[in-house]
Amino acid sequence: MAKAIVIYNTRSGNTQKVAAKIAEGLGADLASHKEIPDLKDYDFMVFGSWLIFGTISPGGKKFMKKLDSEALKGKNVALFITAGSPDQIMKKKGVKILQKDVAYNCMEEILETKGAKVIKERFAVVGAYKFLPWGSGSKYKGHPTEEEFKQSVKFGASLKKHIK
Ligand SMILES: Cc1cc2nc3c(=O)[nH]c(=O)nc-3n(C[C@H](O)[C@H](O)[C@H](O)COP(=O)(O)O)c2cc1C
After folding, report:
1. Rounded distance, CA 81 to CA 29, Å?
2. Which residues, judged by CB distance below 6 Å to any ligand atom, belong to the binding site of ligand 1?
3. pTM of the model
4. Hey, whose CA ends up nearest to atom 6 of ligand 1?
5. Which residue has the CA at smallest separation from atom 2 of ligand 1?
6. Which listed residue, 55, 69, 103, 140, has the most CB atoms within 10 A of its CB?
7. Domain count for the chain
8. Residue 28: which CATH number?
9. How many C-beta atoms lie closer than 10 Å to residue 149's C-beta?
10. The pLDDT of residue 131
């Protein structure tokens, strides 16, 4: 069994596809948030979610909050997201912050409460909105692109050093 795993939360498939590419580059197992295996067996984990209303999806938050602290304590974890506009600037309490950073901060807070060490290498991919009329013809159409999938494999490969 691989010593690393990529776990994702998806609605319309973008995050699942990016997660699969990261797992390919990393040589890791892949699991949906709906079927997470026993994480005690892994020494490195990558967590990914899609964004809604400027932060990670409720499903993403929920599954991370339910993770077993015993399995996460002291372990390195990495984060990735897919979003229509990850680099969009938001205003949080008067402070300008990128949408992707709002999401990363949210994930980091949850995972660090569980005792995990969130590494600083992160990865954001543009993902076309699906099932929304205003998204179907938008500039996000066609994302993730083949180039973004290649970058996802590279990101996975760059994380190999974190597997003990
Ligand atoms: C209802 C809805 C709301 C969304 N809100 C945002 C948002 O606030 N910011 C953003 O960057 N992307 C937003 N998106 C885009 C998704 O995060 C993006 O398409 C993502 O890649 C979807 O991932 P999935 O295919 O894995 O579900 C939204 C998409 C939907 C369907």
Report:
1. 18
2. 10-15, 50-54, 82-86, 99, 127-129, 132
3. 0.95
4. 52
5. 52
6. 103
7. 1
8. 3.40.50.360
9. 17
10. 65
- Which of 77, 85, 11, 83 is CA-nearest to residue 42? 77
Say which residues have a Cβ less than 8 Å from residue 51's Cβ, sequence separation at least 6.
57, 81, 82, 83, 84, 86, 99, 100, 103
In a domain, 164, yes or no: no
Residue 12 lies in a domain: yes
Radius of gyration of the chain (CA): 15
Pocket test for ligand 1, best of 10, 32, 50, 143 (most atoms within 8 A of CB): 50
Of 15-24, 85-94, 139-148, give the range with the top mean pLDDT: 15-24
pLDDT digits (tens, 9 = 90+) for 97-128: 999 999 999 999 999 999 999 999 999 999 98
Report CA(58)–ligand 1 centroid distance (Å).
12
